[in-house]
Specification:
rod-shaped; 199 residues; mainly alpha; 8 helices
C-alpha cells in the first residue's frame, strides 16, 4: 500500500489556496480553446474569492485575485486578463531597503526627541514658558536615565548633561528641583506591574 504524502506531491506555488485550486489552474492550462479558457478562468476567480473572503477587505481585491491566478499558473496562463498581469520578475526582486535616519546622539539613553526639544527651548524667548519647558525636559531626562540605567542619579548630573546637550545655550538655574528619584522609580515599577497584568 502506497501513501500519498504532500512532500511527494507537486509543490504548491500559493499554498493558501490549496491543492484543488492548483489542479484547476493546471487543467485550465490544458484547454486549447481561448474562449473556453477565459470562461474557466473567470469561474475559478469566483471560487478563489469565495475561499478567501478576507481579501474583500483589500482595495481592488479582484485585481489581487487575478494577480494570484497568474502566479499560481507560473505566469503561463494565456487568457484575456481584465488587468495587466504581474511579471515573474516581481517574485525574485529584493524589497527596497527602508532608509533609517541615523542621528548622532551624545547620550543615547535620552533619545533624539530630547535633543529636538532642547533645540526648541534654545529658540524660545526668555520667560516663564521657556523655564517650564526646560524643567520638563530635565525631568524627562531624569526619567529616561533611570529607565535605562536603573540606578540613582543626582539632579546635578542631569543638569550637567542638559547644559552639554544645549551646548551651553540654555540658562539653567542651579537650584532647579527635579522629581524625586524614588517617585520616578515607583512609577516605573507600577507601569511594569500593570503591563504584566494586561498580558
Amino acid at each position: 500500500m502506497t501513501y500519498d504524502y504532500n512532500t511527494s506531491r507537486e509543490r504548491l506555488i500559493m499554498p493558501e489556496y490549496g491543492r484543488n485550486i492548483q489542479k484547476m489552474v493546471n487543467h485550465i492550462l490544458t484547454i486549447e480553446d481561448r474562449e473556453e479558457r477565459n470562461r474557466a478562468a473567470n469561474t475559478l476567480i469566483s471560487i478563489m474569492g469565495n475561499l478567501n473572503p478576507h481579501l474583500r477587505d483589500i482595495n481592488d481585491f479582484k485585481h489581487k485575485l487575478w494577480d494570484h491566478l497568474a502566479m499560481i499558473s507560473d505566469f503561463r496562463m494565456d487568457i484575456d486578463y481584465p488587468y495587466t498581469p504581474p511579471e515573474r520578475q516581481i517574485l525574485v526582486e529584493k524589497p527596497k531597503s527602508i532608509p533609517y535616519h541615523q542621528h548622532s546622539i551624545k547620550y543615547k539613553h535620552y533619545g533624539h526627541s530630547i535633543v529636538m526639544m532642547i533645540e526648541k527651548a534654545i529658540e524660545m524667548e526668555p520667560g516663564e514658558e521657556k523655564e517650564d519647558l526646560v524643567k520638563m525636559i530635565a525631568n524627562h531626562m531624569k526619567k529616561s536615565y533611570l529607565t535605562w540605567n536603573r540606578e540613582a542619579v543626582s539632579d546635578e548630573e542631569i543638569l550637567i548633561d542638559l547644559k552639554t546637550l544645549s551646548r551651553g545655550k540654555l540658562e539653567i538655574s542651579d537650584d532647579l528641583k527635579l522629581s524625586e528619584t524614588h517617585e520616578i522609580l515607583a512609577k516605573n515599577r507600577k507601569k511594569k506591574v500593570s503591563g504584566k497584568k494586561k498580558q
